[in-house]
Amino acid sequence: MPDHQTFNLTLVVLSYVVSVLGSFTALQLAVAIPEAQSTRQRFGAIVAAGAVMGVGAIWAMHFIGMLACDMGMPVTYELSMTIMSAVIAFVSCSLGFGIASSGTFGWGKLFVGGLFMGLGVTGMHYLGMAAMMMGAFLSYDMNIVMISMLIAVVASIAALWLAFNMRGPVQMVGSALVMGVAVCGMHYTGMAAVSMDDNGSQLPTHFADGIRGDHLGETIFVLVLGMLIVILGVLSVRQRRRAALSI
């Protein structure tokens, strides 16, 4: 990236916070996958964990992280590609949870599930980058792209292992903190792979129709935070009811 690009430290911190909270919530939801007593319950648990991990932890972190970067020029985000990047994150994380949790737990399924999830997260990131509309041409350092892909796959395998092996609250908090570092590491490595060359400040045709806003990053953080708090509240109520019934 050009030397004049800078990062908004507040948004960088918020991107890490949302990735940690999203990972913690997804790990809480993943507990229900092996405990499911029917195919329908298992599917619902997989979709819930995949949605929170993919959208709440990874995509939200990605988009806030994108907004944290001052590109040195006006930028907007093409809506359909931005939405598709979130869908890819959701589907790939759901597939990862589904594959890793099928039948008896094994390292082979963990690797395959992590591979699907990691490649999906990588695709989400670079599609999100392609959604940027600005007066510049983008090019990529493929060596750094490959490193970011490797980080995404390793982080995904770690996420799936943690999801099915960590149960205590302290362990889950520690796991979420580690996942936050991994998710942010992949994102900011991917950002480092990009170079931007001025095209004469010629803006794309639909530039004005793109997503933008002075406080868009903070708004996304607040919305996702509210969603995660509601989900954690519902999970807490359910756990208390189960504990009361077991007495």
UniProtKB/TrEMBL annotation:
Keyword Membrane assigned: yes
Keyword list, A-Z: Membrane, Transmembrane, Transmembrane helix
Domain MHYT: 7-197
GO cellular component, one term: membrane
TM annotation in the entry: 6-31, 43-67, 79-99, 111-138, 144-164, 176-196, 216-237
Domain of life: Bacteria
Designated name of the protein: MHYT domain-containing protein
